Amino acid sequence: MLLAGKWVNASQTFGVYDPQDNRLIAHVPLSTKEDMKKAIDEAEKAFKKNKDWPTHERINVLKKAVEYMKENQELYAQTIATEGSKTITEARGEVKRAMQTLEISAEEARRLKGETINFDQNEGSENRVGYYYRFPIGVIGAITPFNDPLNLVAHKVGPAIAVGNAIVVKPASVTPLSALLLADAFEAAGLPEGLLSVITGSGRELGETLVTHPAIKMVSFTGGLDAGKTVAEQAGIKHIGMELGSNSPAIVLNDCDLDEAVTSSVGGAFGAVGQNCIGVQRIYVQNDVYEDFTKKMVMQTKALKVGDKLLEETDVGPLITEKEAMRVEKWVKEAVEEGAELLTGGSRDGAFYEPTILANVPDQATIIKEEIFGPVVLVFPVDSLEEAVEKSNDVNYGLQAGIFTKNLDHAFYAIHNLHCGGVMVNDTSDYRIDEMPFGGVKNSGLGREGVKFSIESMTEPKVVSIKL
User: Where is the signal peptide (predicted)?
Assistant: First the structure.
């Protein structure tokens, strides 16, 4: 692991396994609280040592890191696909996005500016001029999940380095290798020693130390709601950024391009095995097209190829662990026992779970209210757009939503009435570019990611007033 700029081992290790066949692929250090404390202490020293690190050097490091990743692109993709759930095609897409995230970080480093302030708007301050500028806050503590093991790390490291912060990353224990490869890129790019650490190990062992250490000035967390609540309780008075997941809806109206809606919904529901915080979980379809939509969606879903992640023809791989596949299986069975109709799927083989569509899911079912985080989607007929929006909002999450319609009035009704962080018109919730503000309301999190918006949360404004 990378501890304060040095590659170190530990007295104990833990295994990283391919979820497809439970094959051991690596041993990584099992860090202790003392390792984490050392990484944070050294990060604080490195930040102070490099407090005057010039913008052009930060930009250069980020660009060189991208160059290193381009030269080793297939290694990154193979690592993502082997340690995680993504197919090789999805993994290659993630590598491209991670490189773009760092490229945007370099661009935003150049644009980190303040504004002049008109002090003479206040009577008696006519002889004052001034401005504000933004400065880095110090050491960032980052906790990242398994489902995007490279790009979601890049979304924390890139903005932190762009403004001159130090950062300590605790990656998901099941997918630490991609984060370590990102650290490789920054070391090759000449990042000053100590500004980045990637500490591997147990979240239960390391998390509280990272979150509560007084040198940590911001905690950037992506993960589950329960863990997020714990982080928020432990963090105290410091910056917090959280992306906690969702239960994302799509609305399909009778005036839309139905084939486009079907294809987008299949991709949005089953991409990355449904282990995607903006993946489609609930689809509300207007009555006139409900039967046609469900028939077409079932047909396309059955055509998906489930199997070996490393084969380019594979559409859907395994979930991250067999335990997660068993949880999904349990939720689906409970819903069917309570009256839901299984339109396709519903079978498990180890960590693999068939892409599954449920209809007539009763309101009391767990699967309708909580985040599935698996290859399952629920479809519902509705009478109107207003009913669809009301039902879309009837969960404790609000990350993103989608609506399919050719009517601008309908689109803007959804835009203004869906309670979420983003509305995708003629697309599903499963759409994101790495520059846009990304985050949600309710239990979907606090603050926004997206490079520019992360940079704002990782800096503080300082006002300067000069009396002439």
Answer: none
Give the 3-state secondary structure percentages of the chain, helix then strand then coil, rounded to 5. Answer: 40, 25, 35
Percent of the chain with pLDDT over 70: 100
Say which of 277, 324, 354, 371 is annotated catalytic: 277
Beta bridge partners of 45: none
For residue 399, which amino acid is it?
Answer: L
Residue 31 and residue 199 in contact, taking contact as beta carbons nearer than 8 Å = yes
According to CATH, the superfamily of the domain at 248-438 is Aldehyde Dehydrogenase; Chain A, domain 2 (3.40.309.10)
In CATH terms, 2-244+444-467 corresponds, of 3.40.605.10, 2.40.50.140, 3.40.50.2300, 3.40.1260.10, to 3.40.605.10
DSSP one-letter code for 383: S
Among the listed residues 83, 243, 324, 371, the single catalytic one is: 243
Q: What is the mean pLDDT of each run of 10 residues along the chain (468 residues)?
A: 95 96 97 97 98 97 98 98 98 98 98 96 96 97 98 98 98 98 98 98 95 98 94 94 96 98 98 96 98 98 97 97 98 97 98 98 95 98 98 97 98 98 97 95 96 97 97
- The reported pLDDT for the residue numbered 379 is 98
Active site annotation includes 277: yes
